[in-house]
Design brief:
The chain has one helix at 2-72. By secondary structure, the protein is mostly helical. The longest helix has 71 residues, at 2-72. It is rod-shaped. It starts with a helix and ends with a helix.
Length: 73
């Protein structure tokens, strides 16, 4: 009888945990979509920032070359 009650308690606990997991599934899906959206935003902002840094770097190098040419004459 004791083994039966132990097995029944285990099955009840497993069923409760499975039910909680099933009810949390929409929340986990929503959190996954939110995380994906945030990562896309971070990558887009980072890409725009890196593009700006590259443009400023190239612009500085071009101006540096133009200044060195004008000082030669």
């Amino acid at each position: 009888m004791r083994a039966f009650l132990t097995g029944l308690a285990f099955l009840a606990a497993a069923a409760i945990l499975a039910g909680i997991g099933f009810m949390l599934l929409p929340l986990l899906v929503l959190m996954g979509l939110l995380l994906r959206f945030l990562l896309v935003c971070v990558f887009v902002i980072g890409g725009i920032w890196l593009l700006g840094k590259l443009i400023i770097f190239i612009w500085g190098k071009l101006n540096q070359q133009n200044n060195s040419r004008s000082h030669e004459n």
